[in-house]
Design brief:
The chain has 239 residues and is α+β, with helices and mostly antiparallel strands. It folds into three domains: 3-52; 66-140; 150-234. The protein contains eleven helices and five strands. The chain has helices spanning 3-16, 24-31, 46-52, 66-80, 86-95, 102-108, 111-123, 129-140, 176-184, 202-212, 227-234; strands at 157-164, 167-173, 191-199, 217-219, 222-223. It has a five-stranded antiparallel β-sheet, with helices on both faces. Strand 4 and strand 5 form a beta hairpin.
Length: 239
């Protein structure tokens, strides 16, 4: 195999690859030129051949900083309005080359560990309230595996938001409509179900929202909520 021919092929394939030289394995696949055609014959290292062809050899991408990975994952959570599953991470990587690979993300930790680190990261910085709204309920209800559809899980009840007068009640029930009727005949003002969250852990999810709005508790399960609080509750269809 002629040396000049190999150099010419390095240049040609690099030009076809946006000016970036191929690694020797990919080069061999594209051209049919084997490692034995050049190794120990013209060059001791593939990088030497690439340099002689007028290019800089490729360098390995350094390992991602953990905060960089968390920031990228946070951006995807914000984009999807939920914690991503494996396929969504892989798809994002295929579309954006600076997005960490699934293996790079899992080196930071499994899902439960990733969520813990994201909550810790967001709690120490401003501007991440929307991310905390998504991630905190997952740890509160001890969800480890992704839930993509209420049809795929066992629904054992609901946590509802009900309005009566100026106050809001957060409670749990296996039939929110029935609970609305029961309260309507007990309270002097009209009651309306604002939103209900399907869940396989009514006790845990009710406790999460009670704790979240503890500073706004009026009495029992009744709260004085803002429009922003209500929007936060209504964003969740399943927890």
């Amino acid at each position: 195999m002629d040396k000049q021919y190999i150099l010419a092929e390095i240049k040609r394939t690099a030009n076809e690859n946006d000016g970036k030289p191929l690694g020797w394995a990919k080069f061999s696949e594209k051209t049919g030129i084997l490692k034995t055609d050049w190794f120990g014959k013209y060059w001791a290292r593939w990088g030497d051949a690439v340099i002689e062809a007028g290019h800089q050899p490729n360098v390995f991408t350094p390992a991602y900083d953990e905060n960089y990975i968390l920031e990228k994952l946070i951006s995807l959570i914000r984009e999807l309005d939920k914690f991503p599953v494996k396929g969504e991470i892989i798809l994002k990587r295929s579309r954006e080359k600076d997005f960490p690979s699934y293996s790079a993300i899992t080196r930071v930790g499994k899902k439960s560990e990733l969520i813990r680190k994201i909550i810790q990261y967001c709690s120490g910085n401003e501007g991440y309230d929307d991310i905390l709204e998504i991630c905190e309920p997952i740890t509160a209800s001890k969800q480890i595996e992704p839930k993509t559809s209420t049809q795929d899980i066992s629904i054992s009840g609901y946590v509802y938001l009900m309005k009566s007068g100026r106050n809001y009640k957060i409670g749990k029930s296996n039939a929110p409509g029935r609970r609305e009727y029961e309260l309507s005949i007990q309270l002097p003002e009209e009651t309306n179900i604002i939103h209900e969250i399907a869940t396989d852990d009514p006790i845990g999810i009710e406790a999460y929202w009670h704790n979240r709005f503890k500073d706004k508790r009026k009495r029992g399960e009744w709260f004085d909520l803002s429009s922003e609080d209500i929007r936060a509750f209504k964003r969740r269809k399943f927890m």
